[in-house]
Amino acid sequence: RSLISGFRALADRRNMGLFLLQSLLYWGCNGFGMWILARAMGLHIPLGGAYASMAFTGVVLCLPNSPGLLGQFHGAIRMSLLAYLPESVVSSSGVAYAIVLHGIQAVWYVAVGLACLGWLSRGDPQSFARALRESKRAAQEAEAA
């Protein structure tokens, strides 16, 4: 409920515009990065194929997953690459690509999370606890509404 109630902020045109801009930037960079990595690893897929692979993987990851997305992430990348590359290539270089991609993305998300955690604290260790309290309070208010 809290997540869904947070979408109410998108009714404001400014918030919606910022959301769309940040979404396009994030997903644009992600798909482009996947394409660059694929080419660097000898997987010559089209740029649109990298975006299709990203989209397919995103759909697969919406299903119940194992911790760390182990298995499902790699399987989704592998299945999406089969649309563009022969099985023999996907079974070797494609699997390596999925593992490297997963590793890069895991490091990226942990690094950004730690940076945001540091920014949130900004020298005041109580600010993180305060943010958690405010988040819970906002969720309770949203449920009551």
Q: Sketch the topology as an H/E string, one letter per element.
A: HHHHHH
Q: Tell me roughly what share of residues is in helical segments.
A: over 70%
| Strand percent estimate | under 5%
Largest sheet: none
Q: From the alpha carbons, calculate the radius of gyration and give it in angstroms.
A: 19 Å
What's the N-to-C terminus distance?
11 Å
| Mass-distribution shape | elongated
Structural class: mainly alpha
Which residue ranges are poorly predicted, with pLDDT under 50 across at least 5 consecutive positions? Answer: none
The number of distinct β-strands equals 0
How many DSSP H or I helices? 6
Mean pLDDT across the residues is: 88
Keywords:
mainly alpha, 145 residues, 0% strand
SSE blueprint and pairings:
Layout: H1 2-6, H2 13-40, H3 47-60, H4 72-81, H5 87-121, H6 125-144
Give your account of this protein's structure.
The protein is an all-alpha fold and 145 residues long. The chain is elongated, with a radius of gyration of 19 Å. The mean pLDDT is 88. The chain is 77% helix and 0% strand.
